[in-house]
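Tutorial sheet, problem 5. The two components below are modelled jointly, 504 residues in total.
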Amino acid sequence: MTASSVKKKITGTLTCIAAGVLIVAVALYLVLPILALFFRITPDLFLASLADPEVKAALSLSLVTSVISLAIVILVGTPFAYIHCRNQYPGKMLVDTIIDLPLVLPPAVAGMALLVLYGRAGLVGKYANIFGISIAFTTLAVIMAQIFVASPFYLRQAKSLFDQLDPAYELTARTLGASPARVFAHVVVPLTASGLVSGAVMTFGRALGEFGATIMFAGNLPGVTQTMPLAVYVNLAGDFNVGLTISILLVLISFTIMIAIRFLAKTEVSHA
Amino acid sequence: MLEAVIKKQLRDFSLDLSFSVNDGSIFVLMGENGAGKTTVLNCIAGLMGPDAGSIRFNSSVVFDAGIGINIPVEERRIGFVFQRSAVFPHMTVGENIAFGLRARRKPTVFIKERVGHWLKAMHIEDLVDVKAGNLSGGQKQRVALARALAIEPALLMLDEPFTGLDAENIRLVKELTRTFVTSMKIPCLIVTHRVIDCRDVGDNACIICRGKKEWEGKPENLPGCSCRNDYV
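Model answer (structure tokens):
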């Protein structure tokens, strides 16, 4: 064996080791804090905390509000994204940017902005208040904050799916006599369904984890506006086990969401 | 009979074309990529509006810039087979063929009968419940043809219908197209860039170049392929 081939072999081994260390380091950095959550609590304590009315209230509030937010985002967002993609109109670029804005905006700022508009003394809120309608610090505010922060995940996905869809499908359907609404319902939505569902799952996950905008705009009233992430925060200074239990629940839900997306990505319809 | 006079300003040149196609006759539109062939089909289908001109099927006017008539695409009753067939991959073969009839709210019994008829006519009866996304290229093209013809169109248009098919399927699609254009007595417009397809299937042909008619006549007299490799 020559000296140069030995040197090559050593370099190869070192590269392998370095690559392995890098992968393990990144994976551990992400997974260790999550694992720590599970090791910090015993199964008995976890189950006991699950029965805590505060946990139950936060869990059901979070699930109900996130489902409502998701339903609104899908019902309004799908036709919106389609109309937006298929038409040229003045200010389209601007609308494109506005859609993405909540992604980069700090959630606390989003909450502040919602409060300034819909709060008791807000631009819109003060007129609503005249009719005895209060928006801020209600469950409605929780939903509004979630929609504001989470909708871009769905809208972006829907936009890119509609942009990528071969126009021949829609044009064929039109020549066959279908109205634009029928084309949308029978051709466009089914052909993009799996992608839309994965966008919806991401949106649901983001809505479920919403914290900053909610605490600013909806407050922290147990059973009314105290969602799971808020309950985690409150229990940092309260019952630590309750905080841990809710955190673990959120981890489990997030994990399920990620698996669901992976699964959906694999079952995408093959286009002709 | 189809009579079309189409004028439309495109990005690099203006389309200015007039031609007519008799019932039961196949007219082949040839030309280089970007010559305006697909735009002509889109204008006739109503997917694009010409700037000027008129389009009529037999006596009915579907477009006339002069008197402001522009019948919407879904009411023109045109069987339009797009490039790569565009069968709906999420639907079965049967649902694909039924699509236009359902959109036109025909009775269920009637739709079932028509679908059965076209499955048989296209020799795809055994594929009725197969998802169209799983078909071969030749099968897709036959489904697309059946779907287009099922609405009993006043005109059949095929955009590059032979691309990507093997020899046997090209022969079959040509034969089926000829059969139904003759039996249904409708005009047919085919866009292709291959001389051999034009000669096999066309009754009349025309070559367009940058939106203008360069040549029109019988396919057997088509100018040779000496200078234009892409017509071979």
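Marking note: The longest helix of chain B spans residues 167-184. Full credit if you identified this.
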